[in-house]
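in:
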């Protein structure tokens, strides 16, 4: 089968499309014919050799965590050909093994489904960790990307108000997800103040705003970051340990089935263009998701 792999850490050019043995599912796992795989920022961080403590690997290594596809033979509880989405490893490939999966709701495309697992697990985790309650206001710095899009829609479903920062091109997008919005960049703290008081804040972009988020909430315990490694030096929690992926998938299916969750796919790339997908993701301005289609 064809699979994206890298034999040394480095830039996008270390990614190669190779012929590889098909993977075999171990106990509790499932093997799928991949139809789409999500491009998460962690994929290029791992490719560069960052995050090795959280994502230990031996080279050469495959790429990718999230995928959607069709089930192969011999799995209890699902039939051959069932459409599933979930989280596994080396998902930029024709076949991959998933450790956690759920059946795709009717009407969902593989491309869209591949984008949900990791970002929904992260969104649900950080909303829980920042302890924001229905009726309160959550400030989300970096609201238009994958995790931000998920946070805004979970918050809306729970009755949590959101003030969002995003780039100029994404103001209407985040407003469409129910947030009051303003741009990041010079003067953003004052613009947020004008939108109203905030009870808690999430840093999803790692853009060096932890001090300002503490100032706006009045308490480092009311701020959580997923992207600023210096956050803990300022007394703010850095959230990096995944919660329950099966619970996140169940919540995702529930929200999708109720029609209250939709994260757009900004662009789909063929397996041969994984390096371009990484270059575009690394540029840091994804609206929703980018995916590899197989
Ligand atoms: N710790 C964890 O468990 C965990 C889990 C998942 C992701 N992450 C990390 O969290 C980050 C976000 O992930 P993602 O999948 O949501 O990424 P993504 O889809 O690539 O989105 C990146 C977003 O950052 C925004 N952005 C860029 N510069 C900004 C700035 N100066 N201020 C505010 N926002 C800015 C962009 O907004 P515009 O396009 O509107 O400019 C874009 O929407 C990545 O660094 C990723 O590695 C961590």
């Amino acid at each position: 089968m064809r699979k994206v792999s890298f034999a040394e850490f480095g830039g996008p050019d270390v990614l190669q499309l190779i012929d590889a043995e098909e993977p075999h599912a171990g106990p509790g796992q499932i093997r799928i014919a991949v139809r789409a795989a999500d491009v998460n920022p962690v994929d290029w961080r791992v490719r560069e050799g960052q995050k090795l403590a959280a994502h230990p690997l031996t080279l050469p290594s495959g790429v990718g965590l999230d995928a959607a596809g069709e089930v192969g033979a011999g799995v209890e509880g699902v039939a051959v050909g069932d459409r599933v989405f979930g989280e596994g490893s080396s998902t930029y490939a024709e076949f991959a093994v998933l450790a956690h999966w759920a059946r795709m709701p009717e009407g969902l495309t593989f491309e869209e489904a591949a984008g949900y697992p990791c970002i929904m697990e992260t969104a649900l985790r950080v909303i829980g960790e920042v302890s924001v309650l229905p009726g309160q206001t959550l400030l989300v710095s970096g609201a238009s990307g994958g995790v931000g899009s998920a946070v805004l829609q979970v918050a809306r479903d729970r009755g949590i108000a959101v003030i969002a920062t995003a780039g100029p091109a994404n103001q209407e997008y985040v407003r469409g997800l129910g947030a009051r919005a303003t741009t990041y960049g010079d003067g953003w703290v004052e613009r947020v103040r004008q939108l109203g008081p905030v009870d808690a804040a999430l840093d999803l972009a790692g853009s060096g705003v932890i001090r300002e988020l503490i100032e706006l909430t009045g308490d480092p315990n009311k701020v959580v970051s997923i992207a600023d490694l210096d956050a803990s030096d300022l007394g703010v929690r850095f959230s990096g340990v995944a919660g329950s992926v099966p619970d996140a998938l169940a919540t995702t299916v529930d929200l999708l089935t109720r029609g209250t969750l939709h994260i757009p796919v900004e662009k789909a790339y063929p397996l041969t263009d994984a390096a371009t997908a990484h270059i575009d993701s690394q540029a840091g301005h994804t609206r929703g998701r980018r995916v590899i289609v197989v």
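note: The chain has nine helices and 15 strands.
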